[in-house]
Design a protein that fits this description.
- There is one protein chain.
- The protein is α/β, with parallel strands linked by helices.
- About 25% of the residues lie in helices and about 20% in strands.
- It has two domains: about 290 residues, Purple Acid Phosphatase, chain A, domain 2; about 230 residues, Glycosidases (TIM Barrel, Alpha-Beta Barrel), CATH 3.20.20.
- The strands form four sheets. Strands 12, 15, 16, 17, 18, 19, 20, 21 and 22 form a nine-stranded mixed beta sheet that branches.
- The longest helix is centred in the last third of the chain and has 17 residues.
Length: about 575
């Protein structure tokens, strides 16, 4: 059963001599970027590749379409023997939408497409898994072909409903919510509701789409829905989801976003593996180890300090959305976690109480992500009830106390996952010298409190400990001392590696120093595997107190620290 297949989308290949259909400079690089992406995929182990559409840039009604198709076949030739095509709106015509910037598909454009790329919808079975590709531009079109495809799809889904099914569509069914209104980047509601219902009834495992040139992950019932990045250019309208100035060409040339993907299909599940192309225009060197892009499981737990579940109202702005706003989420943090092999993240208890976060926690959990939950103060009965209710999401629970030694007699927390206590370390209790003082709060027992913790551990019932280490403290010594504590107490231990500096006003952006320290900490964690290793920052903090570098930047691209962990 186990196998891998590749996915590439939105290559937007132009005729060999080019054309003038786009005013953006980045579009001129599409062909070279497609060559790199093709050579990268062809260097990986896979049984076949699916192109999710927008193979070419010119529309079927343009005189340059045929020459673009010929160039595309030439560029994609290394994958051609095992390539399956899904029609994109550039390949076959737009869906029926009054505000679309290009003409809709019709009988003529369907024929033109099929003459070059084969049937606009088709099915094949590979090692018992059913692969179904549809012409998404047809849905809600009112054409005769829409009804034909509809009847065909319903028949296939009924026939194979006891099998594992993957569905491939150029347009995503929705971006943010199944209830969202129609816009340029989704299905209109009549067709959307029909397709979702029949996919749920048939038990479809996953739906893959392109078109948007950005990554989005959704879940409807039990269906995982992936919208995948392009190889050619980034849609600059979605740059509005990042709280920072856009990348080059208003965000259109955000090289950290470009990628192809592998889908690793196992006996009972699947996993999406991203192979970053990063806008490269030269042929991928086969001597380069492709396994560098596909990581094994990482045991580090980063802190999700920023809003990781919120949606944004993008401004209405032509040529795509001149009449209404659309909502979208930044799902790249999840994509980066997958790429780094991270399966546990740290987030506050308040996220479990917020419907927005709670839904996404279950969505993320469906992909294997677990949550290390924490709160300030001793947990209430309500807190414990919430933790027990959502125990399937949780890997551990930590709480922070100002004076933990005063509460030891009250601690008897019967939870199905590790529970740890840490100390609130505040500058308010620090000894001041002269007129100098500091404003700072951190979490976790200081390492010099190990003996103190050891002295009263017996009064804690099944309770573990959270420690912290700052940049000036020796990592080797810390791990050895925590090992001794583990031998004497046999309790769960967590160690927070602080990216933040000692002063909230001094930035910590020394990448070389941080990279060295992170690599050493991860090496030691493998040796002392009983320690839950936490990183105090995932997304860079570039404003507020304690500004510092994380594993990804505010554009959700890898920082040098993040890259050092996977490349």
């Amino acid at each position: 059963m186990n196998f891998k297949f590749g996915i590439i989308t939105d290559t937007h290949i132009k005729p060999k001599k080019g054309d003038q259909s786009s005013p953006f400079k980045v579009n001129s690089l599409a062909n070279k970027r497609a060559k790199y992406a093709t050579s990268l995929l062809s260097s990986s182990e896979q049984d076949f590749t699916i192109h999710l559409g927008d193979v070419v840039h010119p529309l079927p009604t343009l005189p340059t379409y045929e020459s673009a198709c010929l160039e595309a076949k030439k560029i994609l030739k290394p994958l051609s023997s095992k390539m399956h095509f899904v029609p994109g709106n550039h390949d076959i015509g737009d869906k029926l939408h009054n505000a679309s910037p290009a003409g809709p598909l019709n009988k003529s454009t369907i024929k033109i497409y099929e003459d070059h790329f084969g049937p606009s919808w088709h099915i094949f079975v590979h090692k018992g898994v059913v692969m179904i590709s549809i012409n998404s531009s047809l849905v809600n079109s009112g054409l005769e072909e829409e009804e034909i495809q509809k009847n065909w799809l319903e028949k296939q889904l009924h026939k194979y409903k006891k099998k594992r099914i993957f569905l491939f569509s150029h347009y995503p069914l929705f971006i943010d919510s199944p209830e969202e209104p129609e816009h340029y980047d989704n299905y209109a509601k009549p067709g959307r509701k029909w397709l979702l219902n029949i996919c749920v009834k048939a038990g479809v495992e996953a739906i893959f789409s392109g078109h948007v040139h950005h990554f989005f992950y959704n879940r409807y019932k039990k269906i995982k829905m992936y919208t995948l990045p392009a190889t050619s250019f980034v849609r600059q309208d979605y740059a509005e989801i990042f709280p920072v100035e856009p990348a080059l060409e208003f965000g259109r040339n955000d090289i950290g976003k470009f990628s192809v993907a592998l889908v690793d299909v196992t006996e009972k599940n699947h996993k999406l593996l991203f192979l970053p192309t990063e806008g490269h225009t030269k042929k991928f060197k086969k001597t380069k180890n492709i396994s560098n892009f596909v990581t094994s499981q990482s045991l580090i737990t980063p802190h999700l300090r920023h809003d990781w579940a919120g949606s944004f109202d993008l401004p209405y702005n032509g040529p795509m959305e001149e009449f209404s706003r659309k909502r979208a989420r930044n799902d790249y943090p999840l994509m980066r976690l997958w790429q780094m092999g991270i399966q546990t993240v740290r987030t506050p208890l308040s996220d479990l109480l917020d419907k927005k976060f709670l839904k996404r926690m279950y969505d993320w959990n469906a992909t294997g992500i677990k949550f290390s939950i924490f709160k300030e103060g001793f947990p209430s009965k309500k807190d414990l009830s919430i933790l027990k209710k959502h125990k399937s999401l949780i890997s551990s629970f930590d709480f922070a106390l100002k004076n933990p030694e005063k509460f030891v007699t009250r601690v008897d927390l019967k939870l199905s996952f590790p529970v740890r206590v840490g100390k609130i370390v505040s500058s308010s209790s620090a000894v001041t010298k002269g007129s100098k003082f500091s404003h700072s709060v951190s979490y976790g027992f200081p390492l010099n409190d190990i003996k103190k913790v050891q002295s009263y551990w017996k009064r804690f019932s099944r309770l573990g400990y959270v420690f912290q280490i700052n940049a000036s403290e020796n990592l080797e010594s810390a791990f050895k001392n925590l090992q001794q504590l583990k031998k004497k107490t046999n309790r769960p231990i967590s160690l927070i590696i602080r990216f933040a500096g000692p002063s909230p006003a001094v930035a910590s952006f020394d990448n070389k120093k941080l990279i060295t320290r992170m690599k050493r900490a991860i090496f030691l964690q493998k040796k002392y595997s009983f320690i839950d290793l936490q990183l105090d920052t995932f997304v860079s903090v570039d404003r507020g107190y304690h500004p510092r570098t994380g594993l990804i930047d505010r554009l959700s691209n890898f920082t040098n620290i993040g890259k050092s962990l996977i490349f």
